[in-house]
Structure formats: structure tokens, C-alpha cells
Amino acid sequence: MKKETLTLQAYKQAPWRAQLQWVGAFLLVVIAVAAVAGLYLSISGRSAATGRRIQVLEDDINRLQRENNDLQTLLGEISSSRALSERVGSLGMRQLTVDEAMYLEVPGYVPATGPSLAPPPTIQEERTPILLPEFTDSFIEWITEKLQAVPDPARATEVAP
Question: Are 145 and 137 in contact (CB under 8 A)?
Fold first, then answer.
């Protein structure tokens, strides 16, 4: 009996070592939780910053679309027939009659014809084999073909011991 207790005492650790192991395990868990929390906060922060940048860009897009619409409206007002006739009148211009217009003939000038259209679509049939010739031989045929092939002496390499 005495021998058993001596053996157990020999393998039993000192109390301060057991406490140190418990403290180390606790600190390891605390560090792991802190690392996971830090990673979570880092990802959440980057996600929030990216979301805010997306909102700013969407606001810029909306602002530019409104500005573009305003400019298109202004262009429509400026190019309306009423506005153009007012501008022509304020500049002292008047409309020409057919008798007042002068037409010049330019030698060598060929007026543009109508638009050139693309040719009508056609179907081009290409016959391709379903299986390539390399895949129509069986394994045994391929082996016999390779074994019967005469080796090329120019391609042979000498192996040195």
C-alpha cells in the first residue's frame, strides 16, 4: 500500500502547478474571446464605413441625375421653336425665300445615299464530328498501334549509367 501512495505522489503535480495551469487556460480563453471580438469589431467597422461610402456615392448619383435633368429641361426650353424665333428676331435675322437662296454646284461632290444596311442574316452550317478521331479508337487498338510504331533513331536518347 505504501508503494502505491509513493507512486501516486510521484506522478501528482504540485498545487501551485495545477493553479498555474488553470490560470493559463483561463487567460487563453480570455485572449481567444478578445481576438474574436476584435475581429468582429474590425469587420463591422469596415462594413459600416463601406456602407456609408455607398450612401455618399448614391447621393452623388442622385444629385448628378437631378442636375442632368435640369440641364435637359433648359436645353429643351432654349431649343423650342418659340425661343428660337425670339432669338432670330432679336438678332435681326429673317427667313429666306426660295428666290433669295443661292445654290452652289460643287464638281465631284456625290450626295450621300440612304443608309447602308447590313446583309440579311444567313445560316452557315459547319459539319464538325461529334467525336474527334483520337477518341474513336479503343484502348487495345491504341496500345497495339503504339507498340507497332517504329521508333525514330533521331529521337532516341542515350541513357548514361
Answer: yes
The phi, psi pair for 61, rounded to 5°, reads: -60, -45
pLDDT per residue over 75-114, tens digit each? 999 999 899 888 888 998 888 888 888 888 889 888 878 7
- Alpha-carbon dihedral 15, 21, 24, 28, rounded to 10 degrees: -150
Taking CA atoms, 121 is separated from 44, 66, 116, 126, 148, in Å, by 55, 42, 15, 16, 51
DSSP-derived secondary structure for 23-61:
HHHHHHHHHHHHHHHHHHHHHHHHHHHHHHHHHHHHHHH
pTM (predicted TM-score): 0.42
Q: Who contacts 78 (Cβ-Cβ below 8 Å, separation ≥6)?
A: none
